[in-house]
Design goal:
Residues 77-125 form the Methyltransferase type domain. GO terms for molecular function: S-adenosylmethionine-dependent methyltransferase activity. This is Methylase involved in ubiquinone/menaquinone biosynthesis. With 237 residues, the chain is of the alpha/beta class. It has one domain (16-209): Rossmann fold (3-Layer(aba) Sandwich). It contains six helices and seven strands. Strands 3-2-1-4-5-7-6 form a seven-stranded mixed beta sheet, with helices on both faces.
């Protein structure tokens, strides 16, 4: 996996309201994930990061929802996202709502998530899309120092590559919110130009077996040797 390094300092956000149009991003993600929450099942859901804790997950079928982070509201566990204080295979689902966008250890966080997830556990990732109107703001010197332009933005291809190394199966992958300043980004624009959506959403499941299975070769029954009778064998003197 290619290293994700950045020279600029990373400032963590404690709420979606701390960034311009953050309420629109939260509503767009909540609307898109509303159909997926009832499909998640299990005992424990980890909402890693302040933005994950600030996302509405009341429709999720998992009853025990634990908010993990260093700063933010309604946190249950104070810990670094890349050093989760949970045992191996103890969690049914993990939510990373822009957690990778505001950290210096994105790959380590994914490895920690892979460690604490049960087999066939769920992973929900949201990030900013650099190939969008929002991504164009990163090249503007005036906007470069403001949120969300100073966050880290990853292409979906890069995220899918990281998840593929960890053997996650991708169930759903899309981009949404074409216009940053509107709740749904414009219905027509979202249908015609989904590739330039400001938000990227990936839903995956942890798998413990290779996704490309090799067929088992059947043992051929032709040409089998007959059993040797030791009494008829002649050995050299």
């Amino acid at each position: 996996m290619k290293a994700a390094q950045s020279k600029k300092s990373i400032v963590r956000l404690t709420s979606w309201d701390d960034m311009p149009y953050g309420a629109y991003y939260r509503q767009a993600l909540g609307q898109e994930l509303k159909a997926w929450w009832p499909k998640l099942f299990g005992l424990y859901l980890l909402k890693i990061g302040a933005l994950s804790a600030d996302l509405d997950t009341r429709d999720c079928a998992i009853f025990h929802q634990i908010n993990v982070g260093l700063e933010g509201k309604c946190l249950h566990v104070i810990a670094e996202p890349h050093r989760l204080p949970f045992s191996n295979k103890s969690t049914d689902a993990c939510l990373l709502a822009h957690t990778l966008s505001y950290t210096g250890h994105p790959r380590q966080i994914l490895r920690e998530v892979d460690r604490v997830l049960l087999d066939d556990g769920w992973l929900v990732i949201t990030t900013f899309n650099p190939v969008s109107l929002l991504g164009l703001g990163k090249i503007c010197p005036i906007l470069f120092r403001r949120h969300p332009y100073r966050s880290r933005m990853y292409t979906q291809i890069r995220l899918l590559d990281w998840l593929g190394v960890l053997n996650f199966e991708i169930l759903h992958c899309m981009r949404l919110q074409v216009l940053p300043w509107r709740q749904h980004g414009g219905h027509l624009l979202s249908m015609c130009f989904p590739v330039i959506g400001c938000l990227s959403l990936i839903i995956a499941r942890k798998r413990t077996f290779p996704l490309s299975l090799m067929p088992m070769q059947k043992q051929s029954t032709h040409g089998l040797q007959q059993p040797i009778n030791a009494s008829t064998c002649s050995y050299p003197q």
